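Note to self: the last two entries modelled the partners one at a time, which told us nothing about the interface. This time every component goes in together.
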Amino acid sequence: MPVEITDWHVDLLRTYLRQDDAKLRPMARMIGAKDELDGSGVLMWAAFVEACHRRFTRKTGADIVRFVAHARIRRGRNAPPIAPGAAEKLIISALAGTRAEGLTELQRAQHIILLSELIEDAAPTEAELEQFLTAARTYAERLAATV
Amino acid sequence: MPVSDDIVAAFRAHLRGDRQEWNRLNEALDRSPATTEPYFAFLTALFAMAVQRRFGNAPTDDEIIDFVADLRSREDVLADRLSADATERMITMIVRDDVMTDDIPRQQTIDIRMGVLTAIIRDEAPDATEIEDLLKGSRALADGLLS
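The predicted structure of the combined assembly is written out below.
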């Protein structure tokens, strides 16, 4: 059965990026119940790729190194840590359109944290966020068609 | 075997930023196993003293993350060669004793010590007297480690 990107997936991503924890908690519980993980996963990765392309327009290694360090400092000690090597690999692979090799599934899942950090840096308006979500969905649907 | 005058002379050229003289003296050094140990002991001591000089005794994790990101973003080759995690741990190990570095490959520890030492010296631009003090203190520290 093909992976479908639904309005619910987009709303989940919107809620996550708005850091609306009260709304996000019950939605996150539904991911398993609705067996929606594939759609959510594809959309999250697509959003991460879209965010990377917007943030790293010059695509230099120095920009990536500085962004990851900045994100780690901003998150501080109380949030789950970002592993810098894995984070840099994920960003490079997102920009190159390839799969980051040599990472554990846990390290691979860091793209969800990095996405949040990229959006926090970009500080989009509501209109910009909606435009971003639309672009991410379009890309996710292209990805989903190849799954 | 203690640290030789030849080893100190080579590193003096390096700390002064005289790349040509560093290359000449470094390549002329005796590479027998007996002299390898003092060479790396001296590099380790220089690294430790430079880190102490740069960070003092109580740097925050954020200061170290920021420094390492700055160092790695100076050249793409440094970002590739110096792992952020390993470099941060090696610096932290000098100022605290709550990190382990046993898993870092030997060649990488050498690259990290050279990279960090070079960056600190370039940033702080010590005068000739300060360089001599650093060489003297490091030689004493290395000879203590070797004895």
